[in-house]
């Protein structure tokens, strides 16, 4: 089972909605037998999602760097 995306519209941020959704989703998956969870987040996420995930008990285990060369 997988959760492929989670987001909160800008006008509704900073109200605990993302945290509540994450907690509810993780509890649901655990009730279905999940014992581990992986999470991927872009460090440049303007909503600072990485901070939320750290507060929920996730930890950074790997960072992936992508480089792109501009045309020209």
By DSSP (H or I, 4+ residues per run), the number of helices equals 2
User: What structural class results from the helix and strand content?
Assistant: mainly alpha
Q: β content, as a range?
A: under 5%
Question: How many E-type strands?
Answer: 0
Instruction: Please bin the fraction of helical residues.
Output: 25-40%
Summarize this entry quickly:
The protein has 72 residues and is mostly helical. It has two helices and no strands.
Describe what you observe in this structure.
The chain is an all-alpha fold and 72 residues long. It has a domain at 37-65. Helices cover 31% and strands 0% of the residues. It is built from 2 helices and no strands. The chain has helices spanning 17-31, 49-55. The longest helix has 15 residues, at 17-31. It is globular. The relative contact order is 0.15.
Keywords:
2 helices; globular; mainly alpha; single chain
Topology (SSEs and partners):
Layout: H1 17-31, H2 49-55
């Amino acid at each position: 089972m997988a959760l492929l995306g989670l987001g909160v519209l800008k006008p509704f941020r900073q109200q605990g909605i993302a945290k509540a959704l994450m907690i509810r989703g993780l509890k649901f998956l655990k009730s279905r037998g999940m014992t581990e969870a992986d999470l991927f987040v872009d460090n440049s996420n303007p909503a600072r999602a990485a901070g939320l995930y750290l507060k929920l008990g996730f930890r950074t285990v790997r960072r992936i760097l992508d480089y792109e060369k501009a045309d020209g």
